[in-house]
Amino acid sequence: MKVIPTAIPEVLIIEPRVFGDERGFFFESYNERQFWEATGVPARFVQDNHSRSVRGVLRGLHYQIGQPQGKLVRVVAGEVFDVAVDLRRSAITFGQSVGLTLSAENKRMLWIPPGFAHGFLTLSEHAEFLYKTTDYWAASEERSILWSDPTLAIDWPLATLQGEPPVLSPKDAAGMPFLSAEVYP
Questions:
Q1: Which residue, 42, 27, 9, 14, is CA-closest to 110?
Q2: N or C: which end of the chain has fewer CB within 10 A?
Q3: CA 14 to chain centre
Q4: What is the pLDDT of residue 18?
């Protein structure tokens, strides 16, 4: 696998080694030993999640305050614009974000360590999104920051929606402003 650093050093793009020919392709989507050796991240994953969204659905920005989750995310059908926001007050990159396109075609994965909020916008007709987490989901710990918060100034590719607003859950529509949100030390 190839590891590509981002503007936030702890957030990593992972490109698997893909073997393909006229029959199709094969790759290891996760190998604990190789992940640890390539990234230096000794993550232990405890839960796998799978979501499906239609074009224009924006999920996030989600995080768990008392049980922070590291996430290894990827897309197995379609395409999304994926975002990680640093919520670690002590970090030099506090309040900064990384955004990139993940797709079934590019097969890229993104490692988002604990201490970050996460969200994505579905760019294709539909997208299937898989992610591993380092801690279990805890409804009482879940928080949401407003995706369009002007302080964060995330450059979501809204032009791909052709003038339509993103489709949000009630929870995401009522997300907290960044400056009022609970963050990590």
A1: 14
A2: C
A3: 12
A4: 83
At 7, the pLDDT band (50, 70, 90 cuts) reads: very high
Beta-ladder partners of 77: 128
Q: CB-hemisphere CA count at 13 Å for 85?
A: 27
Question: Which residues are 162's β-sheet partners?
Answer: none
Domain boundaries, the chain: 44-180
Q: What is the pLDDT of residue 17?
A: 87
Cβ atoms of 143 and 62 within 8 Å: the answer is yes
Average pLDDT over residues 51-56: 97
DSSP line for 22-36: TTEEE--S--HHHHH
Please say whether the dihedral angle defined by the alpha carbons of residues 46, 53, 120 and 38, taken in this order, is positive or negative.
positive
Active site (catalytic) residues: 62, 131
> Which CATH architecture does the domain made up of 44-180 adopt?
Sandwich (2.60)
- The CA-atom distances, in angstroms, between 24 and each of 18, 19, 85, 99, 135 are 10, 8, 35, 29, 34
Task: Note the pLDDT tens digit of each residue in 58-115.
Answer: 999 999 999 999 999 999 999 999 999 999 999 999 999 999 999 999 999 999 999 9
